[in-house]
Specification:
It is globular, with a radius of gyration of 16 Å. By secondary structure, it is an all-alpha fold. α2 crosses α4 and α4 packs across α6. The protein has one domain. The chain starts with a helix and ends in a 5-residue tail after the last helix. It is built from nine helices and no strands.
Length: 148
Amino acid sequence: MSEKHQDVALILKLYELRREEGLRRARRWYFTEFNPQSAGDVVKIFGSGHDGSAHYRMITSYWDMASSFVNNGGIDEKMFMDANGEHIAVFCKLEPFIDEVRETVGMPDYLRQLQTLVMKTPNVNERLDRLRGVFLRWWKLAQEPAAN
């Protein structure tokens, strides 16, 4: 199997794992219910014992791990970036607070792999801002009585 075929197989495996029911629930929660307004909000959910904490940790650790594979040459970066965008979406909710979160929890490298990969994205700041607008709209819709 060629190197490119191995990269394709790994990217498809990552996609397949995203379809697992627990991860699907976590993704739905992260993108529609999790709406941090401060580092304190992130730290609170990170350290709590309820489902939101498990969902948060599942999503962030999944994408930090996938980013590590790319950053360390295990998966072709261009191919990964062309095929994925969710890692950027995950980071956009945390980016304004990440330095303070790291300091508060005493983990200076927390989600460093994810951040490193996301920051390589062309026009990353514009993309992060655009995604924040999308997720704010999704969160507002999820708050409406008809959505519940």
